[in-house]
Here is the input.
Amino acid sequence: MAKTTGQRKQSRAEIQQRYIEREKSENPDAYLQKESEQWYARRRCGKVKTIGDLTERERRCIRKRWHERQHESRMRHRKAATNTPPVTPDRDEEREATSQRRRICQKPQ
Here is the structure.
């Protein structure tokens, strides 16, 4: 990629990220297959451990982190839900509510 005026040179991470995005969009099935093979290769080499491969103490530590992250995620979700404005009622519902109020406020004759 040639450098033009006004553009900065892309970092290696940006180039790799664009390549991965392009790979995903062109052939998603092949990309997923490749990712799966890479995962199992890392497992065989011992670079990645599953929860079953860990000691009891490591399991407790990891599960504690899972629990904390889940709690933080739930709190963020609740906070976002409370900050959103309420849904505005439809015009039909609003008219119906006002007509009911009028009926209640009218004195019986």
Summary: Residues 56-83 form the longest helix (28 residues).
